[in-house]
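A quick aside before the break. I want you to see a complete sequence-to-structure record at least once, exactly as it would be stored in a machine-readable document. Don't worry about memorizing anything.
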Amino acid sequence: MLRRSQSPSPCVVGDACVVGTINPELYKFLEDNSETHFPEGCLGRLGVPAGGRRLLGDLIKARRLQAPSETCSPLVKRHLLPDERHFLQSRIKCKTANPQFDEQFIFQVSSKSVTQRVLRVSVYHVDRQRQHQLLGPVFFPLKDKTLEGDCRRIIWRDLEAESLEPPSEFGDLQSCLSYNDCLHRLTVVVLRAKGLWLQEDMSFVSVSVRVSPMNHNKFVKFKKTSAVLGSASPVYSDTFSFQAGPAELDTARLSLTALQSTEGDKPPAGQGGGGPCMYARGKQLAHWNEMLNKRKELVKRWHALCRTTEP
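That is the input. The structure line, written in tokens, reads:
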């Protein structure tokens, strides 16, 4: 004979009835070593919760911020790119290089366009004259699937150093290069661009970057990033891999071309790249050599774009 199981009776305390308790373990963030291990030259590290809506709205903490003075009084500004005009700002945390924010922000954005946006979180130091000095930004492309997951997990990003050099005439492009000699694989990560020279009304122009490996002066393959609409400083974080044997690296080079699209036409906005001494000089050559010396590591650099006549 089957008997219906009985639920436990609620506990009565005075005039109140206890119907359940909250388990605090469910609300703790998972621990890791990201708060204790910092590479040399690190400008600081920012932590936000994983998960789409929480990433967009919550701000947790920062660690080991490097202020220009002895004490650090940080605040954070959040932009939802490509909108550069509107931002949300945190409260100032006085005299701490390890601020705990625990603040929430609300962006009005449609669910259809959210994956096309990039969250930029910029950390500033507020000095005695109430001037805001940028310590560094962090970028979170909302299309990135690695940002999803357990909301108790904290996503850490190191602050990026802003280039102190004046912008070039046709803009600048930031990319990462890596070469795996075991797999014969060349990896290119197109991160972002800034100050692009666009020919039309910017609000109607979408910009993408074409990645083209070349052998001697012949194009081997073409790959292209996603297109970003209405920004002269687009953020991509798109990764591409190409097969290249060690012997090919002496005659291979990369062409990175920023393309602007208006009503089907795609005129180049500027070109950069990298390669060995046969094809590159200056920073492009230094970036290529550093990639070869640091096998399997992502080497990040900014490069000035120049005018191009490529089709």
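Two observations worth writing down. The mean pLDDT is 80. Residues 282-293 form the longest helix (12 residues). We'll return to this after the break.
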